[in-house]
Here is the input.
Amino acid sequence: MQINVTGLTKTFKVNKKKEGLRGSIKGLFAREYRIAEAVKGINFSIDEGECIGFIGPNGAGKTTTIKMLTGLIYPTEGDAKILGHTPWKRENDFRRQISLVMGNKFQLWWDLPAIESFDLQRKIYDIERNDYRNRLEELCTILDVTKLTHVPVRNLSLGERMKMELIASLLHNPKILFLDEPTIGLDITSQKSIRKFLKDINEKHKTTIIMTSHYMDDIESVCDRLLLISDGKIIYDGSKEKLANKFADEIILNVRFSQPIAEEDLMKLAFSVKFNADGCTLKVSKSEYLNTIHNLLNSGKVRDLNINSVPLEHIVEKCYLQKEEIS
Amino acid sequence: MFGRKYLGVAKLGLQENLEYRFNFFTTFIFVLAPLAVHISLWIAVYATGVRTIAGYSFEMMMTYTILGHLLEKFTGEVNIQIKTSADIREGLISRYLVKPIDYFTSEIAILFSNRIIYFVTLIIPYLLVILATRKYFMFNSDPILLLLFVISIFMAIILSFLLNHLLGLLTFWLKEINSLYVFTQSTFSFFAGGYFTLNFLPQGVYDVLMYLPLPYTLFFPTTIYLKKYTLSQIGWHMLIAAAWIVLLFIINKIVWRRGIRRYTSDGI
Here is the structure.
């Protein structure tokens, strides 16, 4: 096991601020605190080369967990062992083997070309010159940013900057890459190329990836395993397929008709019918859907039919509402 | 190699500052306006006919004032307090915490690379001032004193950094320390001798002050330049300054170690 987390807990003392100026002045003398439990005794372990999608609603404890695993903050209770190290001891041997990329916080030197930051990474991580050159070329080629490394970072677009961030964080070939919302605010093209890049890196170098994101497309295309956290507790830990099967008791049929069809007839077949420009979308239960298709085709009015399972996004949305563990 | 990464940090700090800091025009205004006010004040005082004040002739006072202003700009990195505070509050130290590099050492590396920029931007306006006041500016050509002067400036830079960095670290406990900054900035300047020479203070106060770190950030180097100390006095005071450097270094380390446990890495 590369990562082993047991009973990891983090509580914060949150200042209870009273309203208005009077409240602020009172607060100067007698502060009231509320204990907020951000992470409540979570357990999991991760193997080398896994791609983990760490998801949950805002405030669920994702980022707090990432902060503990990367050694930025100390846990209140519990333990974590990563590559044999305790992260918050911040031993150099540990820090050399991990990397953290944050979607809304940059590590590159803002006014200088990215190549300068890369060169500093080389010095910080003591990367051999040849390794550095090969690695830089490899990463720049995959992300198609070779020409941009000499442009001051502040003049790059958000997508280009994020690609540079990824390069900077991978130059030392870390064993584990932590990503906190790496595609936030990026356009679809950049999102896609970053997803593909992460998958490539994972396959080629066996880099373990632990990623939080609110975009289910990120998770679906990069991650094999989901860790679903809600209200500080892990409520699901397993493959995305398994989760999909648990919740996807519905099948979605997109149907186009060659002749008009009465809505009442369709209502008999499905429990939800929605008409749109092209035709209509039917939601049917999984146990029934073959039957429904049979009936639809028998009507002789179907021109085109598409069978889809419920998107992961909807499944996850359902999970967020539920606080209990999903076994 | 240990030092290489910090040299790298220093180099990038220098390059980044070059993008902005080379603004001679603003430096001129910011540097020379307060100095002009300060100098006119002393001209007015000595114009009343007094020969010396607390052992300072007009020439010595002019030299003290000009050098004092220069040193305060050059050594007094009060910005460090604000920068350290912001780095903690906005979670920027996280960049360092996840890498095999030390924040404190990096800040010192950047501190010294910044000195190069400061030197280049300050030297021309001050040379012009000294040229304009050359009749009253005292020139010191004693090589030993000049060497000790340079060493004392070096110590002043470190002391000033350690003090301001330490205050910045208080952000781990107090979220907002900018109001404290306004207070410390003027207090520091006063006890460092930035407003007037510490020789104006009662002997008892002066004696106590010289056991504290602040006079060593401005008053002490300037006084060496003015030949007001014997070599053995300089040696003794340098020992005190060195002791403060060691002590403040240790306190900084302890406070950091305690504070980092409270760090919440906000903003990531």
